[in-house]
Write a structure and sequence with these properties.
This protein is mainly α. The protein has four helices and no strands. It has one domain.
């Protein structure tokens, strides 16, 4: 209890007691000298003084109760103010965190979109390069290998025919003749087999290898296009989510900073 309230209660108690004493003395003087008939007046005065004392005690108790109530209300108001200050501090921190998170999410989404676009550009470039450059080079290399192989086979055949014509005469030794002709036939066979193999490889590249590579590069382009679309959708979603989160954080801070009496007035007007 504060010193002011204690002083007030003491002053009130003394005032009540003083009034009771004055009332008792005045009553004795009006009734004349003390005698047998005056005894009842003395008893009545004592009763009045006792009642006054009880009233003073009751008043002191009431004043003390009021003082305790006022002190409790003051503490409650202080706690309410402290709670309000904490709510405002928390709301400001949450808003700052939301702003930083929104900025980080936005940068991440933008970088993801940029990366997806670069991947798409790379995939398209590789597909175009294969179709317009690499495959043409492969075709030219393949034609060159086929022409070389075919020409080698023709030359080997011609050399064999020349050897057979040259060794047709009887003056050459039979063993030498057979050896040279056998070697020529073998070289011709290898040239023909090599030419056939090159033709098979060329056919496989045309029917399988090149179409498969073109299909793979096309799938890479399609995948990159999907990634770009997903990155664009993520960026749009991130912007909307950031806007919503920041709006909620700002509204929460505004509600925390709003005075309590303004909220009470709003509630009373709604109730009316």
């Amino acid at each position: 209890m504060s010193s002011f309230l204690r002083t007030s209660v003491a002053a009130l108690t003394l005032a009540v007691i003083s009034s009771s004493c004055v009332f008792a003395v005045g009553t004795g003087s009006d009734d004349g000298p003390a005698d047998k008939a005056g005894k009842p007046h003395v008893a009545a005065g004592a009763q009045v003084a006792g009642a006054a004392g009880k009233d003073a005690a009751a008043a002191a108790a009431g004043a003390e109760a009021l003082a305790k109530k006022a002190e409790a209300e003051a503490k409650a108001r202080a706690r309410k103010v402290e709670k309000k200050e904490r709510e405002i501090a928390y709301a400001r921190m949450e808003l700052a965190i939301a702003e930083m998170g929104a900025q980080a999410d936005l940068v991440d989404a933008e970088q993801g979109l940029e990366h997806a676009r670069q991947e798409l550009e790379t995939a398209r470039t590789e597909l175009q390069h294969f179709q317009k450059v690499e495959m043409l080079f492969d075709q030219e290399d393949q034609k060159l290998d086929l022409d070389r192989s075919a020409e080698n086979a023709v030359q080997q055949k011609q050399e064999l025919e020349e050897l057979m014509a040259m060794y047709k005469a009887d003056e050459y030794a039979k063993m030498t003749k057979e050896l040279v002709i056998r070697r020529g036939k073998f070289q011709l066979e290898m040239a023909e087999r090599s030419n056939a193999l090159e033709q098979k490889r060329a056919a496989d590249r045309q029917s399988h290898a090149w179409p498969m590579k073109a299909r793979e590069l096309g799938l890479s382009v399609a995948k990159a296009e999907q990634a770009v679309g997903a990155a664009e959708a993520k960026l749009a979603k991130t912007k909307s989510q950031n806007e919503l989160d920041l709006l909620r954080a700002r509204h929460k801070l505004a509600d925390a900073e709003r005075p309590d009496d303004e909220e009470d007035a709003g509630g009373e007007s709604k109730g009316a």
